[in-house]
Design brief:
With 551 residues, the chain is mainly beta. The protein is built from five helices and 38 strands. 46% of the residues are buried.
Length: 551
């Protein structure tokens, strides 16, 4: 996430946190001009989960390799399955993805100063039963799918610590939408085209068309002192494989992509392994540890929307222009109670926690109007067989409309397990059911992922866990008000955070988003998206300053 403007790209984010990072295991007194051949090279490994009963491991395919040598600066591991990794510490963890028990010849090349090298190999037998068909389907579309850097989304490039506090988010730096537009790097960073295909055997084939140049991290620019575009031929197909991720991030998919033959994803940081934190039909969010600096984690967002169709906001581009200027309806919550002629209370837990496994019981008592704000409070308290209470209100049958700009200024509740939402359902919900009626999620946020907010569309063929989703990096969601907006027309539904576009959905007559919808406000607890509830959670509130509809 970003609190200041980084004037010279990523360079300053690295300089500011250099003291936190372990750059290399090289002694400072090496003279780079001398020749120092690594000696006493050793290579050991530990198969994760290996035991007397399972000598080849627990099925994860994960192996920890440790190489040591005198006078070594870097270690290159060649795993015998077409994949490689470079390490400055000599320790790497690698997950072999070949199903069943397979034998691999693993080599390590230790490099010293002056280009001197030593190498050795060892044999390892590993058992892998890992399979993630859902991620493979989303990544490749079941045949072939093309991805692009999500240049118009906040946080399409970011960096944070790889361990310790904040290790699961880009807390050091997150790029603003189109931040690189107009700079030299736009000629190479915002032009990458990544294609994932399946061959006849069901293996993933990766092709990166970088149009001849790649955006290099400062650590790989030969002392240039800043990120640079550099000529690089990435042509040709490469094998890619899915393997278990090892970061321990709770919100992650638990799956990583390994690329053969030095493959990488758009921003060169010297690694070929990327953890998939999130993937939907048209968005992908990945995390990777750079070879030069294992104390850091870099983040990249991708979308299936081509560059010329992505929203143009930030980076000096023209700001989003609304089609709707006339205020058609609003509630600014200036009274001392909820307007029950407009809003309905929904009571209870629905069916299976409103279809999401939520664990709260909705009541009227969890809603109040205070100091010009609507306050929906989730509490840890027993009610009707449930351990938590909260509230859910709707405008069904009272205020329903087709098309417009919906704008809400709100502050999120704090605490793991909270799941607030500002959303809409089709007015024919009672007749046709869900997802046939259509659902427009203007804002969803979860306390277990405080640095991310999202929007989604649910419709037949894309509902529940297969919804069409876009997300954005957010600062201070629980301590500051932010403006969440959806601009809904017959041609598109565009979502904005504080005036910045981060997600656009193409609407047309075949989709259920061309009729009256009603508004819903709620704070859920737990469930499929809310996740684990913090054991210390007692109560917390979503506050809404206003909600307005322009037409």
């Amino acid at each position: 996430m970003k609190n200041i403007k980084f004037i010279n790209g990523i360079k300053f984010s690295l300089l500011a946190i250099l003291a936190l990072a372990v750059f290399s295991c090289v002694d400072d007194d090496y003279d780079i001009g001398t020749v120092s051949t690594p000696s006493n090279l050793s290579l050991d490994f530990e198969i994760v989960g290996a035991s007397a009963d399972m000598p080849d491991g627990d099925g994860s395919g994960e192996v920890i390799f440790t190489a040591k040598a005198d006078n070594a600066m870097t270690y290159k591991f060649i795993f015998g399955d077409g994949f490689e990794k470079i390490s400055s510490t000599g320790v790497v963890t690698y997950s072999f993805s070949g199903n069943g028990v397979n034998d691999y010849t693993v080599s390590v090349v230790a490099s010293g100063t002056g280009g001197a090298m030593s190498s050795m190999s060892t044999e390892v037998s590993v058992f892998s039963s890992f399979d993630d068909p859902e991620t493979k389907e989303l990544l490749t579309g079941g045949d072939s799918k093309t991805w692009y850097v999500a240049a118009a989304q906040p946080g399409h490039l970011g960096v944070g610590p790889s361990s310790g506090d904040g290790f699961d988010s880009p807390i050091y730096y997150a790029a603003a939408p189109n931040e690189k537009a107009g700079e030299d790097v736009s000629a190479c960073f915002y032009t990458d085209v990544l294609t994932y295909s399946l061959n006849a055997n069901g293996d993933i084939i990766y092709n990166q068309d970088n149009n001849g140049a790649t955006f290099y991290n400062v650590d790989f620019t030969d002392g240039a002192g800043e990120d640079q575009c550099r000529d690089l031929d990435t042509g040709g197909d490469k094998n890619a494989s899915l393997a278990p991720a090892t970061s321990g991030i709770e919100s992650s998919t638990g799956t990583a992509i390994n690329y053969a033959n030095g493959g990488f994803m758009s921003y060169f940081i010297g690694t070929s392994t990327y953890e998939i934190l999130e993937i939907t039909e048209n968005t992908m969010y990945v995390r990777a540890i750079p070879a030069s600096n294992p104390a850091l984690a870099w983040y990249l967002k991708f979308t299936t929307t081509p560059y010329d169709q992505q929203g143009a906001t930030g980076g000096g581009e023209e700001e989003f222009e609304t089609q709707f200027e006339d205020l058609a309806w609003s509630d600014e919550f200036n009274g001392d109670a909820l307007d029950t002629e407009t809003w309905n209370y929904e009571i209870g837990n629905g069916t299976d926690g409103w279809g999401n496994g939520e664990v709260q019981y909705y009541t009227e008592d969890n809603v109040s109007v205070q100091d010009g704000n609507l306050v929906i409070t989730a509490r840890r308290e027993a009610e009707s067989g449930f351990d938590f209470t909260s509230a859910r209100i709707t405008t069904q049958d009272n205020y329903e409309f087709t098309y417009g700009r919906i704008e809400a200024r709100a502050k999120m509740p704090a605490g793991g397990g909270t799941w607030p939402a500002i959303w809409m359902l089709g007015a024919n919900f009672d007749e046709v059911g869900w997802p046939e009626t259509g659902e427009i999620d203007i804002m969803e946020w979860v306390g277990n992922e405080p640095n991310r907010t999202s929007s989604a569309l649910h419709l037949p063929g894309n509902s529940g866990g297969n919804a069409v989703v876009g997300d954005a990096i957010i600062n201070n969601a629980t301590s500051e008000f932010h403006i969440y907006t959806a601009e809904w027309t017959e041609d598109s539904i565009t979502f904005l955070l504080d005036g910045e576009v981060y997600f656009t959905f193409d609407n047309d007559a075949s989709k259920p988003f061309n009729k009256d919808f009603f508004l819903i406000l709620n704070v859920a607890m737990g469930g499929g998206l809310g996740g684990a509830i913090d054991a210390d959670f007692q109560e917390s509130s979503m506050e809404i300053d206003y909600i307005k509809v322009y037409q």
